[in-house]
Amino acid sequence: MPGVSTSRVVLGAFGVIAATLVLAACQQAEPTATPVPPTATRVPATPTPAPTAMAVAAPITSFAIALKEQNSSGQTGHAVLTAKGEQTEVVLKATSGISRANHIHSGTCATLGGVAHPLTNMADGSSVTTVNASVSSLLTGGFAINLHNATNAGVYTSCGDIPAQGKVLVVELKELKASGQTGTATLISSAADKTDVVLVATTGISRANHIHSGTCAQLGGVAHGLTNMADGVSVTTVNAGLDSLRTGAFAINLHKATDASVYTACGDIPKP
Length: 272
Description:
By secondary structure, the chain is mainly beta. Helix content is 12%, strand content 47%.
């Protein structure tokens, strides 16, 4: 080029090259950012609920059954069975002067088997025996209490099936208004739409008895009438299945003999 020395041209060229190399090195030296994965959000594990404990029904230690008339004998009554350790006390109360021999038979009143446990003979309509069998071993649906005619033991005068445990419910009757009366109500499923109700309570205090709607805390109207108390006992078969009574909406209430508006004892029929 005119007026420019060859050495200056060469130096300029070297300068351009050096600047280019420096720029390239700087670009290569700059580190490439490594992408960072997003931090995972920790979701707390849902705790596994503890299994709900199943309610276990308390063992039955005492219950009553109705002794129903057989062969037009004119005899009815009841039996109360109470646990005495591994033995059972059996108390029979029935119309007097009709039967003498009494037994716990295998089978049912409809189809009696042999004698499983003899009971003491009736005296003035009463018999008390302690048998070598636990209450739970009798509550199988495979036994019945049978009473025999005093003059002809081949004639049955009254009988009551001992139910299976799943077909019987015992309700405690608790004292009301300082009445002095307590007791139990035994409810036994006798058919799909029938329940035997046996009340045993302190004598001489109540007369009228009913199954009411509601609870003892808030009684409703009478749902099922029960027979009046006689010597502290009432036996009734109501037209309602046991399951239909076990809704938590019924209670058994006893009324003072001299003033039915005064309640003397009551028990709520619980849900299963």
